[in-house]
Amino acid sequence: MAEIRLEGVSYTYGRGTPFEAHAVKDLTLTIEEGKITGIIGHTGSGKSTLVEMLNGLIKPDSGRVMLDGEDIWADKKKLRSVRFRVGLVMQYPEYQLFDETVRADIAFGPHNMGLSEEETDERVREAARFAGVGEELLDKSPFELSGGQKRRAAVAGVMAMRPDVLVLDEPAAGLDPKGRASILSGIREYSGATGASVVIVSHSMEDMAAYCDRIAVLADGGLAMYGTREEIFARRDELRAIGLGVPLITDIAYELSSLGVPLGDDIYTVRGVAESIAKLIKERER
Amino acid sequence: MSAFIETRGLKFAYEDADGVRHTALDGISLSFERGEFTAILGHNGSGKSTFAKLLNMILIPDEGEIYVDGKLVSSHEEPDEDTVFEVRRRVGMVHQNPDNQIVASVVEEDVAFGPENLGIPPEEIRARVDGALDAVGMRKYALSSPSHLSGGQKQRVAVAGIIAMLPECIIFDESTSMLDPSGRREVMDTILKLNRERGITIIHITHEMEEAALADRVVVFSEGRVCLDGKPGEIFSRAEELRAVSLDVPQSTALLYELRGLGVRQLPETPDAGACARHIRDELLRLGALPLHGGDANG
Description:
In chain A, 40% of the residues lie in helices and 21% in strands. By secondary structure, chain A is α/β, with parallel strands linked by helices.
């Protein structure tokens, strides 16, 4: 379990060249322990830079990255252990599968950590279960898997290191709706079972609403909003102004409220809104 | 009406490293009318992209035929080069990754690449490039470097490159899947405009149900076959069948579907947020589940 605190971090690409661009500017954000934090923002808002700062792939030009109260850049020898504690799943990670079997691929991280064969084996099976990689796939070549299966195998490879913080950049991009739901609920199970903090970068407001405890909205390299999904999606007009939006179901719920239809608290899932409306119909006799 | 593209019994199998064959397409017969906007949905591995590659003649079928404008262009026989060239000009394709399909370091040069290869005279290329950039709303970036564009802008440049070859049909193979919400909107607006204003036939492969709802027609692939084919409203009213093939319906349709057992009437179309809310309010009034108050209740 761990908390990461970004304290006033800034990062500029191509410093000193004509293409100099601020990717992240004086950003302060706490990734809360044990919570699933969603990060949203349009292309170029600084999401990927932020994600790469979390596990020390990018060093901020100024500001500090604190993992459980310790500056990860204070002692460079410790960076390696930071990368084991903060596991990063990059975009389209299936392109990074390389080993002969799925099992060997998932075992790569635990092996590197110096774990014994037995421990590694246990980690592989546990991670495969969370990520939804069936036992029967473990001895196949990664190249025989479907797109969705490859993605799950790649996620399992990072989960097998049992990171305290699991960071995923667009884990569900390009998957069909069932594949999306399966990978995202696996991530939630991982967090629930291990107490790990999770950071998910996504363009899907629907997924954010359904899976995240906290949402951070980035705009122009800074933190525009941070809060619970209720707090964030209540700011519909501001979200639209920065090119984002709210889930379609939440939009419908707002329209219903303005037409005088009273709803319950859950206006973020189809089931929640349907239950509120069903209640109105069932209680009409009273 | 005449079909612009027609496929008859297309079959295709991939061979893996051990020589085992895996069926990707198992007999696809579809026709696409001129000017029609079709969305193709399907789970990962359902054969959608293989189908697109066959239409663009990147792959040739094991069995079956493809006709473009009534002419047989592709069958299991190796096609001649002229036919491939002709089909690729008439049926353009935009791919998934915006970074993999730009070849030049200046936007207008990238757009000119296709017509240059066709041997079009320079003065006409100029006119075509300008027209194509106008059509996708990217004229003011004509002299920019593609590397400084957003994903949505890069995809629009890729579309312009195709338009400059004056195609009759454009296939979008998951071209919105790597974009953020505003990039998606840009590409969808461009698709609708090309379809409505220029009558270009569109085949849009996507996982986004909201995008498919904008099409004239939705075709659903599963396990290499066509399992559903109809208007978006018809297709999305079959929520259970869609879920059985790993897909879903837009949240507005899903909400109405959840309420169907309680006497709430379904809508023939896929409504936007406002229309969906108004319909539910009206149904609640009709069912006597909402106290009548104010003047906005016109049942």
